[in-house]
Amino acid sequence: MRELASYLGGRWVRGTGPTQALLNPATEEPLATTCTGGLDLGRALEQARAAGALLRAQSFAARGELLRELSRALHVAREQLIALAIANGGNTRGDAKFDIDGAIGTLAAYADIGAELGDRRLLTDGDGIALGKGARLYGQHLLVPREGVAVHVNAFNFPAWGFAEKAAVALLAGMPVLVKPATSTALVAVRMMELFTEVAALPPGVVSLVVGAPGDLLDHLRGQDVLAFTGGSVTGVTLRGGKAALAHSVRINVEADSLNAAILGPDVDEGSEVLGLFLADVVRDLTQKAGQKCTAIRRVYVPKDKLELVVGLLSERLAAVRVGDPARDDVTMGPLATAQQRSDVLAGIARLQSCASVAHGGKVEPLGVPQGTGFFVGPTLLLAPEPRAGDAVHEHEVFGPVATLMPYDGSAASAATLVRAGGGGLVSSVYGDDKEYLRELVCALAPFHGRLTIGSSKVAPVALPPGMVLPSLIHGGPGRAGGGEELGGRRGLAFYQQRVALQGDRALLEAIAGG
Ligand code: NAP
Fold this sequence. Notes:
It is a single chain. With 515 residues, this protein is an alpha/beta fold. The chain has 3 domains: 30-120 and 149-215 and 489-495, 3-Layer(aba) Sandwich (Aldehyde Dehydrogenase, Chain A, domain 1); 225-255, no CATH class; 260-468, Aldehyde Dehydrogenase, Chain A, domain 2 (3-Layer(aba) Sandwich), CATH 3.40.309.10. Helices cover 35% and strands 21% of the residues. It has a 7-stranded mixed sheet with strand order 15-16-17-14-13-18-19, sandwiched between helices. Helix 2 packs antiparallel against helix 4 and helix 4 (93-117) packs parallel to helix 5. The longest helix has 25 residues, at 93-117. The protein is globular, with a radius of gyration of 24 Å. The mean pLDDT is 97.
């Protein structure tokens, strides 16, 4: 069996002691083991901090070139990465491409931003400000790279994109990164790290990888470091409260749970393109990656008079989903990533049944695996006939192929009240053409979201799925979603930079800012 190593201080090192196994979640076949016992993670952070000088000495254009090389290194081995995601992540080929192409594309997008920013090594923030009566005394805000390490703790569901989307932004901003992928699906991240060192000739210490339990990693964080976490909200709270994080005011970004909503407007007619878009988005989010997407639609609100129609149309589409071993071409939805995920999802479905009943779902017989093998749960549509704030459906994220359908009275105000009961989300999508309804709904939802997508007739043929995170738009959300913000083009760089206000002679400040 393959024994995985971590990549620390520019070399591969294995831990000692008890190991954790990585499985194929469809067949339950063990694929590899890993262990981080005895690894000196404090030293690894120091080595990474030292490598930061190298990045800070480079221009944005040069850092962008590095990202371009990393993107190419993944592109060259795309098929290998897809195969690993199928084996270790329970991904169908489509799911795997979504993750891996997302990684390649995000690195390339930040490479382009590096090229745009050119020869500079630091950025100004806003215009200069005259501070006195004359023009001589001047103020200017600058953004400079922090001199620590960007520690990235990632979730199991996007081992490639999660690695790349965070690393791209940090490296372009001028910070070295230490990545801790979720252990259960780490094979893709390990291969990426190999490719970065073999194909892209990454300088030692600029990217490090901890494969397995985090041990005392976070106890060694210091004031110039940053921590970006993606995962469950309970873990997020633990990490925020870490001793070192509190003692050194470590800057922390959290991307956590989210009860993303899809709201069908009252003007959307049967047979329309907009209804087709809404149905496609809901079904895709239920089944893509077996619903294990932070941006997946969990709550679906439909005007009362269209509820029966929508239940029928969604059930028809879900009945066509073929669950099984994702290595088979005829399978359209794979298993959940781990046994723990499966038991959490089943417990979550039971919990939601305090306010909802099953409209579509039940026992599943997966294709291509012996009965009882694999961490499968079939696509499940629940129906909550009388939704209220405080119901489990507005409180609990079931991180799997599960969504709950709910009626509302067709007014923007009622839809907004129900969606806002979710306590803050990453993304919600609204569907319709009635401008006044859409304006009222979007304005009421905006403070509670990081992103909103509007599916109208004009954009229906070209619309991008709400579950697709784009490098040019921010990803994150308030409240339950963790309060974080990532990506968004140049905006994402700010997390890795220190904003400093300079006061002094105008010509001198302009000379410094030009560096
Ligand atoms: P998780 O159990 O919270 O784990 C996330 C990461 O944290 C893993 O790498 C895990 O490592 C690590 N971790 C756990 N305890 C830790 C500790 N005490 N110190 C340091 N690291 C620790 O979440 P998950 O099960 O991987 O992901 C599912 C959740 O993530 C869902 O709730 C989903 O909503 C959320 N999610 C959010 C987003 C977003 O962008 N907002 C994206 C994806 C997922 P091990 O694997 O080694 O335990």
